[in-house]
Amino acid sequence: MDEFKIIKYGLDREFDALTIWDLAWLNENTYKLPGFRQRWDLTAEHQRIMHVHMKKIVKTRAPKNHACPHEEDCEDSVDSHNMCFLLRFILSLDEIASGHHHLDFENGGDDYIDAYLIQLQKKREKKEFLGWFDEDSLAVNLLDLWMAGTETTIQSLMWFLIFALNDLPIQEKSLMWFLIFALNDLPIQEKVRAECLGITKGNRDVELKDRPNMPYMNAVVTEVLRCTNVLNFNFIHETTCETVVGDYVIPKDVPITTQLSVLLNDETDFPNPGKFNPERYIRDKDLVKQVIAFGVGKRACVGESLARAELFLVISNFCQKYKFSPPDNTSAPPTDELSSLLFLKRTRRFNMKLERVH
């Protein structure tokens, strides 16, 4: 029961998550308006928790006796400027080189932060032009990675559930969409559960090492990524010179974007694209190559492998332990998004019945 309450609490709070409109209207005046401050404090709590956690992780790169002069402010503030200042302060290269954490220049470092700082140091030693390559940019990158890697995965899972509830034989951002898909097609979760139990015998959780032996579960993850496409608007770039793409000539300085939602709903590759259908990848094993939900090339999302691993583990273990369906005498939740004007493709509120099966 306690486990169920934790799951429900998390799903309920997801709908109160920060939206693009909160950021658009936020300033020192609107923050004082009745009701707005309370909403901001609620939604910003997630950012505050992340802020404190990230600070503790990155602070290990500084000397043990090194203290931030604004330690108390940094613990509670959700001001992004404070965050950038904190990271810039504790990520001083000279202090890292002589402090608690050692940068391994020969092997490229232990992680992304190390690799970034090593490259930055090399550029400075060669007196190369740095541009935006500095500690402030590192702070922004870390925040981007955290936000992009959590909210999108959560939304994808919710959409899966909605699809699964609309067709009772399938069961079991992108987590929110997973729920919606699964609620619209209940047999899916049954197939996922059967595959999970065939591997674990119900005696343990599904692990990443099981992935090569779970083709249907892998197909579910791929279809979740195709159907969710949680970013309504892809990031805008600009042509630096006149460019030819197929039969089209794009002039210099023209804003461009790769609208993945169009590619992932092309009926040439995906017949009946609005249908959540993992079997399409079982029938055509090469079709998975067409699902470029994370982009391609040097602009591709760096978190693809992590996102796929998260979806695989969360969906498989959730379906193995729980059976979910629409509440009695109710229909499955709609699969249309809350609004196409939001930055993320968000689900509508919905109810579901959750039963522990293992």
TrEMBL record:
Cofactor: heme
GO biological process: organic acid metabolic process; xenobiotic metabolic process
DNA damage listed as a keyword: no
Keyword match Membrane: no
A GO-annotated cellular component: cytoplasm
Pfam families on file: p450 (PF00067)
Keywords: Heme, Iron, Metal-binding, Monooxygenase, Oxidoreductase
Classification via SUPFAM superfamilies: Cytochrome P450
Gene Ontology MF, one: iron ion binding
Matches recorded under InterPro entries: Cyt_P450 (IPR001128), Cyt_P450_CS (IPR017972), Cyt_P450_E_grp-I (IPR002401), Cyt_P450_sf (IPR036396), Cytochrome_P450_fam2 (IPR050182)
Binding positions (heme): 301
Family of the protein in this entry: Belongs to the cytochrome P450 family.
Listed name of the protein: Unspecific monooxygenase
